[in-house]
């Protein structure tokens, strides 16, 4: 039976190799990152912008300190105990802790957000193109939900949360939170990217720069063109 064992072992090794080869690339940390073949000023791949210098270079992440020069403070942050200012039209405030203001998060694939909501305050429909999110409610009552893609029927998944409850928003899907109570609400969320990105639905659709042709939006939303133009003025 030795001739049977050899093919099985070979098949196992081949399957492992296939699984390693088929691993996907890491998620991007910018909306796009156009490659530059070389950084010489005379490169045909560099478009000169005199206002910024010969070229701008972005990295998929950030340059790092030498481990020899790091200290515990690089991995410490404070201030999320302070409430945000909810005195605004939305009645909410988002305080973000990410790699831009907490260097210790670099390459760890994590961000943390504190959200404060006044009564009737809302974190409007939005999405994170590079991260899933888990929300933990610490104070108050919150109505939350997300909408699946067209592939799954644009289904709404929504729940009323109380203190101590958790809810997950899958990567890239539009979601929202609304304070349905009569008292302030505090929630904390963790996202699995150091730069999850943010696309607020209303701002994206009606506040793009330059504006989307209102004829397109009128047909898409089944609205009168004048209503669309009025909405665009709001943004």
TrEMBL record:
This protein's record includes keyword Acetylation: no
Organism domain of life: Eukaryota
Main location: secreted
InterPro entries per record: Cupin_1, Germin, Germin_Mn-BS, RmlC-like_jellyroll, RmlC_Cupin_sf
Cystine pairs: 33-64
Binding site for Mn(2+): 126, 128, 133, 175
Pfam families with a match to the protein in the record: Cupin_1
PROSITE patterns: GERMIN
Signal peptide: 1-23
Name under which the protein is recorded: Germin-like protein
Gene source species: Cannabis sativa (Hemp)
């Amino acid at each position: 039976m030795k001739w049977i064992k050899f093919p099985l072992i070979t098949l196992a090794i081949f399957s492992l190799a296939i699984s390693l080869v088929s691993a996907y690339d890491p998620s991007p940390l910018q909306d796009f990152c156009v490659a530059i073949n070389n950084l010489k000023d005379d490169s045909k791949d560099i478009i000169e912008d005199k206002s910024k210098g010969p070229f701008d270079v972005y990295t998929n992440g950030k340059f790092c300190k030498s481990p020899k020069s790091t200290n515990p403070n690089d991995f410490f942050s404070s201030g999320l105990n302070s409430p945000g200012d909810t005195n605004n039209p939305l009645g909410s405030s988002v305080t973000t802790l990410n790699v831009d203001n907490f260097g210790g998060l670099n390459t760890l694939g994590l961000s943390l957000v504190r959200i404060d909501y006044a009564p009737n305050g809302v974190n409007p429909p939005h999405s994170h193109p590079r991260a899933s999110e888990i929300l933990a409610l610490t104070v108050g009552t919150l109505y939350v939900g997300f909408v699946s893609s067209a592939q799954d029927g644009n289904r709404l998944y929504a729940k009323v949360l109380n203190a101590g409850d958790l809810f997950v928003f899958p990567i890239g899907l539009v979601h929202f939170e609304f304070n349905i109570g009569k008292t302030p609400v505090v929630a904390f969320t963790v996202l699995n990217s150091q730069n999850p990105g943010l696309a607020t639905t209303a701002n994206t659709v009606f506040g793009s720069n330059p504006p989307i042709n209102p004829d397109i939006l009128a047909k898409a939303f089944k609205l009168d063109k004048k209503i669309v133009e009025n909405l665009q003025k709001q943004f």
